[in-house]
Amino acid sequence: MTKRVAILISGGGSNMVSLVEDMTGDHPARPVLVLSNKPDAGGLAKAQARGIPTAVVDHRPFGSDRAAFEVALNRVLDQVRPDIICLAGFMRVLTEGFVQRWDGKMLNIHPSLLPKYKGLHTHARAIEAGDAEAGCSVHEVTAELDGGKVLGQARVPVLPDDTPETLAARVLVQEHDLYPKILRRVAEGDRSRLDLT
């Protein structure tokens, strides 16, 4: 049975596009919704151009009331009944209640080799630490920020003249390769780890 996938974004949606473009042919999943917390997110137009339904739940009217924001999120998600939710540059920290509601169904891509550098500014932190390599991780979403089971990683070398921007650009290429591979495996029922070199 084909899995229904909802993708949550906050920005340009480049990872969303890589996921959607892979979900063709005999793929075990199909995109049913691209949802953003920002009405001006560039990824919304990219999804619409590909014929994917879109929705916006603007977080700003809710202020600091994350629970109320998530009630609105769930109202939209329940309409499309996703089997898998992919966070793809969705820049809102989700509460434990929301994560438990979708337990086992949520994936996230994070631009570091977890468990290193949870949270923000991952590339700058890798450079400052003198790391020889950086990369990205796809993990299951749990109540702990960037703390769920890692399902796959891809690595890139940190070059002597790297800036956070140049490193981020190389890692992003790997994100676009890794995330679709992991989604396909999860949709097939395979949650074993995949490491790309």
Automatic annotation (TrEMBL):
Catalytic reaction equation(s): N(1)-(5-phospho-beta-D-ribosyl)glycinamide + (6R)-10-formyltetrahydrofolate = N(2)-formyl-N(1)-(5-phospho-beta-D-ribosyl)glycinamide + (6S)-5,6,7,8-tetrahydrofolate + H(+)
GO CC, alphabetical: cytosol
One GO MF term attached to the UniProt entry: phosphoribosylglycinamide formyltransferase activity
PROSITE patterns: GART (PS00373)
Keywords, ordered alphabetically: Purine biosynthesis, Transferase
Listed GO biological process terms: 'de novo' IMP biosynthetic process
Active site: H110 (proton donor)
Pathway: Purine metabolism; IMP biosynthesis via de novo pathway; N(2)-formyl-N(1)-(5-phospho-D-ribosyl)glycinamide from N(1)-(5-phospho-D-ribosyl)glycinamide (10-formyl THF route): step 1/1
Entry EC number(s): 2.1.2.2
Keyword Transferase: yes
Keyword Protein transport: no
Pfam families xrefs: Formyl_trans_N
Annotated site residues (Raises pKa of active site His) in this chain: D146
Family: Belongs to the GART family.
Function: Catalyzes the transfer of a formyl group from 10-formyltetrahydrofolate to 5-phospho-ribosyl-glycinamide (GAR), producing 5-phospho-ribosyl-N-formylglycinamide (FGAR) and tetrahydrofolate.
Protein name per UniProt: Phosphoribosylglycinamide formyltransferase
Provenance organism: Marivita hallyeonensis
Gene label: purN
